[in-house]
């Protein structure tokens, strides 16, 4: 849901807030095999990660990976992070390595900027990380609050676009202008004095207003790099329409193109979902999905074989 400090004047950069959701997840099985093999969505990425981790650890073993479900790639929903963490966590458990979260994150090569994917993998819920300082390994977890069971998240997916990733993303963070101290201060104030207290009190109105304010500031900061406050003009249109329906909590997940809307309960969410599908049903690129917050950590189930690892 956004970064907090791209100014860096206090010695730290990034810092962020985010939420683990249900219904969009990565689930894989791993077992020792006679040869490397991977099947299912994103199989190539999982196999590349497994080879790299095993080689780094000096383990002369091969594994088979069967991916049952995978988060859509380059949609702004953390697909790469969750796949890498699930694969690395499976290796950790399969070979009884006891790497710990720092070790898994380092081997998965995640957490270079944001710690949100790492901490949602470990704890679920709504999390805030403290960004990166001169000696930071994994960005520290500052807050983890359970997301209210009755609240819902409407995802707006644009299947024709991909969020910024790879080399272009690295170049953007290398070249981007520093954020003003004023904007960073506003982001932190909205988080500390609006979003987190409202979440603790289960006040969705104030929570939504705070999240949207953060989204507007972050979206405007990155607008020249992603083509606007939203990376997908179509998702932007849907969010404008949702605002006209009275929805207060609106934004984009990471680089997008996926947008989101916050809704108070299942009844309100189902009503908005029905209206959205009626209004935008002719747009083949769009997909709408209702989700809940997930307050559970990634799960590992050990079976005779195979072993299952799920990262959400």
Quickly give the structural class: alpha+beta
Largest sheet: 5 strands, mixed
Which CATH architecture of the largest domain would you pick? 2-Layer Sandwich
Mean pLDDT: 93
| Helix share bin | 40-55%
In the CATH hierarchy, the third-tier topology of the largest domain is known as Ribosomal Protein S5, domain 2
Regarding CATH, which class of the largest domain?
A: Alpha Beta
Q: Over the alpha carbons, how many angstroms does the gyration radius reach?
A: 19 Å
Residue stretches low in confidence (pLDDT < 50, at least 5 long) are none
Shape: globular
The number of helices is 9
**How many structural domains?**
2
- Measured between the Cα atoms of the first and last residue, the distance is 16 Å
β-sheet strand percentage: 15-25%
Quick description:
The protein is 41% helix and 22% strand. It is of the alpha+beta class and 312 residues long.
What does the model show?
- 41% of the residues lie in helices and 22% in strands.
- With 312 residues, it is an alpha+beta fold.
- The chain has 2 domains: 2-144 and 295-311, 2-Layer Sandwich (Ribosomal Protein S5, domain 2); 148-291, Alpha-Beta Plaits.
- The strands form 3 sheets. It has a 5-stranded mixed β-sheet. It has a 4-stranded antiparallel β-sheet with strand order 1-2-6-7, sandwiched between helices. A 4-stranded antiparallel β-sheet has the order 9-10-8-11.
- Helix 1 (43-57) crosses helix 2 (79-94), helix 2 (79-94) packs across helix 3 and helix 6 (181-200) runs antiparallel to helix 7 (204-226).
């Amino acid at each position: 849901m956004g970064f907090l400090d791209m100014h860096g004047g206090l010695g730290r950069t990034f810092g962020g807030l985010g939420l683990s959701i249900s219904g969009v997840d990565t689930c894989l099985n791993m077992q020792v095999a006679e040869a490397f093999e991977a099947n299912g969505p994103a199989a190539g990425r999982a196999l590349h990660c497994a080879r790299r981790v095993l080689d780094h650890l000096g383990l002369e073993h091969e594994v088979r990976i069967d991916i049952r479900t995978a988060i859509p790639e380059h949609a702004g929903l953390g697909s790469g992070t969750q796949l890498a963490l699930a694969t690395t966590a499976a290796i950790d458990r399969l070979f009884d390595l006891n790497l710990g979260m720092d070790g898994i994150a380092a081997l998965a090569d995640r957490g270079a900027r944001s710690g949100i994917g790492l901490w949602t993998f470990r704890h679920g819920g709504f999390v805030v990380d403290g960004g990166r300082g001169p000696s930071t390994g994994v960005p520290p977890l500052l807050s983890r609050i359970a997301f209210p069971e009755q609240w819902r998240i409407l995802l707006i997916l644009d299947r024709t676009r991909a969020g910024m990733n790879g080399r272009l993303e690295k170049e953007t963070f290398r070249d981007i202008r520093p954020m003003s101290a004023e904007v960073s201060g506003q982001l932190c104030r909205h988080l500390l004095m609006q979003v987190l207290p409202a979440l603790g009190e289960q006040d969705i109105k104030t929570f939504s207003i705070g999240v949207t304010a953060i989204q507007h500031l972050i979206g405007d900061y990155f607008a020249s790099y992603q083509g606007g406050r939203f990376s997908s003009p179509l998702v932007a249109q849907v969010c404008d329409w949702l605002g006209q329906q009275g929805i207060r909590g609106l934004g984009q997940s990471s680089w997008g193109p996926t947008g989101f809307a916050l809704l108070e309960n299942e009844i309100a969410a189902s009503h908005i979902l029905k209206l959205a599908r009626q209004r935008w049903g002719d747009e083949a690129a769009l997909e709408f999905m209702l989700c809940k917050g997930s307050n559970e950590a990634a799960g590992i189930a050990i079976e005779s074989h195979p072993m299952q690892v799920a990262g959400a």
